[in-house]
Amino acid sequence: NFLLLFLFIFAAFGIVSWQVVGILFIVTLFLALHPLPGNDSEVKRWMCRSKIVQLLYMYFSYRIVYTQQAKSDAKNQSPWLGVGVPHGAMPFANVLSTPAIESYLYFPKTNGSYPSFVGAPADIVFRTPFLRYLTLFKMCSVDKKSLIKELGKGNNVGLVGDGIAGIFQCNSKNEVVALKNRKGLAKLALQTGRPVIPCYSFGNTAAFTCVYDPFGIMEWLSRKAQASLFLYGGPLFLPIPHRVNITLGVGNMIQVTKNENPTQEEIDTVHQKILQEVEGVFNLYKNSLG
């Protein structure tokens, strides 16, 4: 998208031809809008177990760590909401958890069907060339209606708790989680009566080096556009992630009592439990995982 913007500018000054810009514009539209398989397709089942995914696991030495109780709860108490933080430039720990959980955590049959695990990225991911191919893993929109629909099917849903805010908080020196004032997940859990599994994503913030202005302008624009507007890179600042260890630490399940109209106090209570469990997961595994 930024490339097209620069090409339009170059074309206006006669540096490149409008024919080149037109061709690239059509190709971009095709890559952004052509249909992709649905979550129930064999393509997505194959993708979750494909050689591509195995290579990504190896590149990042990918692991999911958990206690036996956390695994048992996740396996036997579908459907639930999973939340992982921090986001980083790209939440690799969260993205890779979708095929990993779908392929290796065999959920028992519930109400006559087997639950799936579905990731919930930002809506812009579904319309961004190349990036949208991540939705070849099982994915749904992060909007409330879509999340409730998947939970209603009996599926488990995972999302990134700090979103765009988490991108602009990450740096190479400190792990920062922008979750303190984001209480939508707690409210949704109460409204649906579904438990929450807090997780911590180790390595997300180290996979890419992020560059953004210190004045918050790019963050403000990102919020307005509902898209991440910043620069990032890996080795030699190429769009290839650093080869770092990526691990998803799974916390204890938080049970809630269904209330379609929760009070602010109830929301705050559940939200505080989520924050405490995220911190607990980090403290539990930080020394062993570095």
From TrEMBL:
Q: Which topology term describes how it sits in the membrane?
A: Multi-pass membrane protein
Keyword terms, alphabetized: Acyltransferase, Endoplasmic reticulum, Glycerol metabolism, Lipid biosynthesis, Lipid metabolism, Membrane, Transferase, Transmembrane, Transmembrane helix
Per UniProt, subcellular location reads as: Endoplasmic reticulum membrane
In what pathway does it function?
Glycerolipid metabolism; triacylglycerol biosynthesis; Lipid metabolism
Tell me where on the tree of life, at the top rank, the source sits. Eukaryota
Principal location class: endoplasmic reticulum
Its Enzyme Commission number? Answer: 2.3.1.20
Q: Where is the chain membrane-spanning?
A: 6-33
The name this protein goes by in its record: diacylglycerol O-acyltransferase
**Which species expresses this protein natively?**
Paramoeba aestuarina
Tell me the organism's taxonomic lineage: Eukaryota, Amoebozoa, Discosea, Flabellinia, Dactylopodida
